[in-house]
Write a structure and sequence with these properties.
- Pfam families: HAMP, HATPase_c, HisKA.
- It is an enzyme of class 2 (transferase).
- One of its GO terms (molecular function) is ATP binding.
- Keywords: ATP-binding, Cell membrane, Kinase, Membrane, Nucleotide-binding, Phosphoprotein, Transferase, Transmembrane, Transmembrane helix, Two-component regulatory system.
- It is found in: Cell membrane.
- By secondary structure, the chain is an alpha+beta fold.
- It folds into 3 domains: about 140 residues, 2-Layer Sandwich (Beta-Lactamase), CATH 3.30.450.20; about 100 residues, Signal transduction histidine kinase, dimerisation/phosphotransfer (DHp) domain (Helix Hairpins, Orthogonal Bundle); about 150 residues, 2-Layer Sandwich (Heat Shock Protein 90).
- It has 12 helices and 12 strands.
- The strands form 3 sheets. Strands 2-1-5-4-3 form a 5-stranded antiparallel β-sheet. The protein has a 5-stranded mixed β-sheet with strand order 7-9-10-12-11.
- Helix 7 runs antiparallel to helix 9.
- The longest helix is centred in the N-terminal third of the chain and has 45 residues.
Length: about 450
């Protein structure tokens, strides 16, 4: 925009300067020519009064003085053929003037001015002078150079002013764009500084109002989620009392442990819902112990349903940009899908590996019927099946809530990674979750 405004001002100023300077340059050339012709005519007219009264010697002296003063050839042709002043041949103009006609003739080398003086007893006297071409344009080149310098100076001055004006317009627009990108990255505390023309200040105010409304809506949504989660505490408390009343200590301990885990999940959900996040928080954890713990939790249920579990963990710590609670919820969602959408005695494997660019890659593969929509196709070079299976929040082709894969997808994107769905080697579903390192960030 800044460049376009400068080009527009430059084009406008060039047109204006051409409209004024070109006619002025032509006028200067015309004025210089007329000035030279008037000066030459004045020299010739100064001898008219002497022609009728002075003797030939005095007329000769006066003619030479006028020619020397004007630096132009001045010649007087007497009726008897005598030539006074600058020697010159009798031209057609001189012979025509001898008949009593004064005239100005345009030649290739300049203008010839002849003046006929009548009243002498011996006939008509002709006064002749010549204005060279160089004298007709004397000073015109210098004047044109001054005009050119003036035009360039005005153009540069106009471009400078236009650039300052364009910068005053572009800078607020660039700031608005930067603030909008920060809001897109969930930095909801970002605000635009009202600056520039009134229209841009209104846009900045509207953007700030929008950011405030988004904060209010998210705050209300977090409180609603927290309230909904808090309502789960009452049935959990009842469930805990029922578990403690069991006569078998082993069953009571097992069910109480499950209730404790569910209560911790609810507590974490409430804390996460009420957490004010600006999109750049320091949520990090070591993925290895979290995945190991959650797989161990689900292994008990897998043993009860006859499922084989293969766990392949990296031997080194793998820090990722997710909290332990968030990563645990993701693993629970993926493994919960395996138990919910595959028959009993269907095995699955969990692999956690380091990514070359940092972070971790979590892959959950089952030996079930596969994901709906993949058609049993083999995975491509990147491990995905095309066209990819869409992940739509709240929509499931298997009759569930449709939130499990979306939770995993959103967690991956918030960490700077991605979620891939593909077909495993045995034809089952393969879900690959790429998690970014603590320094990575990509808006969800």
């Amino acid at each position: 925009m800044r460049r376009r405004l400068s080009l527009l001002v430059a084009a406008t100023m060039c047109l204006v300067l051409l409209a004024f300077l070109v006619p002025l340059a032509v006028l200067l050339r015309t004025v210089a020519r007329d000035r030279a012709l008037v000066a030459a005519s004045a020299d010739a007219q100064s001898l008219v009064s002497l022609v009728g009264t002075a003797d030939p010697a005095a007329l000769r002296l006066s003619t030479e003085q006028v020619a020397a003063a004007s630096r132009r050839p001045v010649t007087v042709f007497l009726p008897d053929g005598t030539v006074l002043g600058t020697p010159a041949p009798r031209t057609d103009a001189v012979r025509l003037a001898a008949l009593g006609h004064s005239l100005t003739v345009d030649h290739a080398d300049g203008y010839e001015i002849v003046v006929a003086v009548q009243g002498r007893p011996d006939g008509t006297v002709v006064i002749r002078t010549v204005v060279p071409r160089a004298e007709l344009s004397r000073g015109v080149g210098r004047a044109w150079l001054v005009l050119a310098v003036l035009g360039v100076t005005l153009l540069l001055l106009g471009l400078f002013v236009a650039d300052r004006l364009a910068r005053s317009l572009v800078a607020p627009i660039a700031e608005l764009s930067a603030v909008s990108h920060r809001l897109a990255r969930a930095e909801l505390n970002a605000r635009a500084r009202p600056a520039g023309p009134p229209e841009l200040r209104q846009v900045a105010g509207a953007l700030n109002h929008l950011a405030g409304r988004i904060q209010e809506l998210l705050r209300d949504e977090r409180e609603q989620v927290a309230d909904l989660s808090h309502r789960l505490r009452t049935p959990l408390t009842s469930l805990r009392l029922e578990a403690e009343s069991l006569t078998d200590p082993a069953d009571a301990a097992r069910i109480t442990a499950r209730v404790d885990a569910l209560e911790r999940a609810v507590t974490g959900l409430i804390q996460q819902a009420r957490r004010t996040s600006d999109g750049t928080g320091g949520r990090t954890c070591d993925a290895t112990p979290v995945v190991r713990d959650r797989v161990a939790f689900w292994s008990v249920l897998a043993e009860d349903t006859g499922r084989t579990v293969v766990l392949d963990l990296a031997p080194t710590p793998l820090p990722v940009r997710l909290s332990a609670d968030e990563l645990g919820a993701v693993v629970d969602a993926l493994l919960g899908n395996v138990f919910a959408h595959t028959p009993e005695e269907t095995g699955f494997s969990v692999a956690l590996r380091a990514r070359p660019e940092g972070g971790a890659s979590l892959t959950v593969t089952d030996q079930g019927p596969g994901l709906p929509g993949t058609g049993g196709r083999s995975p491509g070079r990147d491990g995905t099946v095309g066209p990819p299976v869409p992940v739509v929040r709240g929509v499931s082709s298997a009759g569930s809530t449709g939130l499990g894969l979306d939770i995993a997808r959103r967690a991956a994107q918030s960490s700077g990674g991605r979620l891939y769905l593909s077909t495993g080697p045995a034809g089952g579903a393969r879900v690959t979750l790429e998690l970014g390192p603590p320094s990575a960030f990509t808006s969800a």
